[in-house]
Design goal:
With 518 residues, the protein is an alpha/beta fold. The protein is built from 17 helices and 22 strands. The chain has two domains: 375 residues, 3-Layer(aba) Sandwich (Rossmann fold); 140 residues, GMP Synthetase, Chain A, domain 3 (2-Layer Sandwich), CATH 3.30.300. Strands 6-3-7-8-9-10-11-15-14-13-12 form an eleven-stranded mixed sheet, with helices on both faces. A five-stranded mixed sheet has the order 21-18-19-20-22. The termini are far apart.
């Protein structure tokens, strides 16, 4: 009998119920979070400069906060404050000294950003991860499931030391601080988690895989798919379930899962439950409970949210903020509108524009969908095409044509014929380029009114190049962006677009029969 599993299952159910006894109204919960953050940081350099103590005395603390504190992007906040934190100065934007910094370059290929990660933030992320696991009590798993191992496919826990501080991937920072009680269930071991070389880490996990009884996997879809396929190939298996028969949960995040769905359904034979997370270097903002089909924005999680409508009134064609006066609180948002997200956190980010866009799907439960990035959209001539539009269109096409399209990217261009979109899709099976182009055009016209209008006027060219999936990952490795924290950009701009175009041009069609152009 699974005694430990029975205890954990019972405890999980109790904790989940206790955690949901009190349902606070979102606006009140968010005001409480803001008040808590301001009170904690009022004596920091930032708090004194922007008069947190006075804001806390206001009758309308949310309004006073908006009026008193400007909106910051990374460059502004780093140049004005965070560079001091990075140099070991304490009490700058958050009390005390910050020991860890999360390195993130997102999908832009730009120089790495260094995001402060406070001790309080680490604790919040741990607690939130446990809350999501507690939601598994809504699924009637056998008690023995709660004794199975959890595989975390994340960055290296071997952080780089600079002065008396450390920097690295957030997943490495978090998994390097696994509580002692959880260690027996957490895989891989400390030595493997510390490996910096991503390929070496994958191979070491493959070698250790038969020793484990994995019940859940956490990681970015592209790399989890590569790992599972590597294990299957290495041991000559028909499926991963021959090695891990108790695998039942896959927790993913970082990118939209929709393009990977067909491949994962086939690979996991529809036997695994998928759960989404919205965990960034700046904080843990949302997760999908086991009894829900969507992410839920977390109203009481040491984060205060504001929202800026993502439209041409507030952002220019390159995704730069042009209206610094308008931001909405949680009680002012509406459903099915794209918003750029501002966050204030317990790591010393204040009214920080993180670059993500979301929309609310249900305000009763604060279900959200991540729709893209403020700088990752196409609007050469007013088509306002979001990553969400692109992803949904290609997902529909993949299902209709029975294609496995896990990666894609789009680059805008302008020539004598007008404006155009150059699509690049990853497919290891035969693709008829003209058919896919026609379907892309059809689907996007259905999803986006602006796109449909511009296709009759300025947007005159839609082109497609199909490459093998490996070509996308090889490019990432060449760029030094091969690992758990990196995702292939869906919209290519600037140097990344130029480098990719040069890379594709080197792949000779004659030596690669899979290379299709339309």
């Amino acid at each position: 009998m699974a005694v430990l599993g029975t205890v954990l299952k019972t405890t999980t159910k109790y904790a989940y119920k206790l955690n949901n006894l009190v349902k606070r109204e979102a606006s009140a919960a968010q005001e409480k979070q803001l008040r808590k953050l301001l009170a904690k940081a009022k004596n920091t350099e930032f708090g004194q400069q922007y008069h947190f103590s006075e804001i806390l005395k206001s009758d309308d603390i949310m309004k006073a906060y908006q009026e008193q504190v400007p909106i910051f992007d990374y460059d502004y906040l780093f140049k004005k404050f965070w560079h001091k934190t990075l140099n070991g100065i304490g009490n700058v934007t958050w009390p005390g000294h910050i020991s860890n910094f999360a390195l993130t370059s997102g999908t832009t290929g730009a120089s790495s950003k260094r995001i402060p990660v406070s001790k309080q933030m680490v604790q919040t992320i741990r607690k939130t991860s446990i809350k999501q696991l507690l939601s598994l009590s809504k699924i009637d798993f056998d008690s023995s499931f709660y004794e199975k191992d959890i595989l975390f496919l994340g960055g290296s826990t071997q952080l780089t030391k600079i002065n008396n501080q450390f920097e690295g991937d957030l997943s490495g920072i978090i998994t390097g601080k696994v509580p002692s009680w959880f260690s027996p269930f957490s895989k891989p071991d400390k030595k493997t988690r510390a490996l910096n070389n991503w390929g070496e880490k994958i191979e070491e996990i493959v070698k250790q895989a038969p020793k484990w009884d994995i019940g859940a996997i956490c990681g970015v879809p592209a790399w989890v798919e590569i790992l599972i396929q590597r294990i299957v190939d290495y041991y000559g298996l028909d499926s991963i379930f021959q090695m891990w028969p108790n695998l039942k949960i896959y927790v993913h995040g970082g990118v939209s899962f929709e393009p990977y769905m067909i491949r994962f359904n086939h690979m996991l034979d529809n036997q695994v439950i998928y759960l989404d997370t919205y965990l960034t270097s700046e904080g843990f903002f949302a997760y999908q409970p086991a009894d829900s089909d969507s992410l839920h924005l977390l109203m009481s999680n040491d984060v205060y949210f504001e929202f800026i409508p993502f439209n041409e009134e507030h952002f220019d064609s390159d995704g730069n903020l042009i209206d610094y006066e308008t931001s909405l609180t949680i009680n002012e948002v509406v459903e099915d509108v794209d918003y750029a997200l501002l966050v204030s956190t317990n790591s010393g980010a204040w009214r920080y524009l993180i670059g993500d866009t979301i929309k609310f799907k249900c305000l009763d439960t604060y279900k959200i969908k991540i729709t893209g990035r403020t700088k990752h959209f196409l609007s050469l001539c007013g088509e306002h095409l979001s990553v969400d539009n692109m992803t949904e269109a290609l997902t529909q096409i993949a299902y209709e044509l029975n294609l496995d399209i896990r990666e894609f990217a789009v680059r805008g261009f302008t020539n004598d014929l007008g404006h155009g979109h150059q699509w690049y899709i990853a497919s290891d099976s035969k693709v008829i380029a003209e058919d896919v182009i026609a379907l892309i055009d059809e689907k996007l016209s259905q999803l986006n009114d602006d796109y449909r209008t511009e296709r009759s006027y300025a947007l005159t060219q839609i082109k497609l190049k199909c490459l093998p999936t490996k070509a996308f990952y090889d490019f990432m490795e060449i760029k030094g962006m091969y690992g758990s924290q990196y995702k292939f950009p869906r919209v290519l701009k600037g140097k990344m677009a130029d480098d990719w175009a040069e890379y594709v041009s080197i792949l000779e069609p004659k030596s690669h029969p899979w290379f299709l152009v339309g």
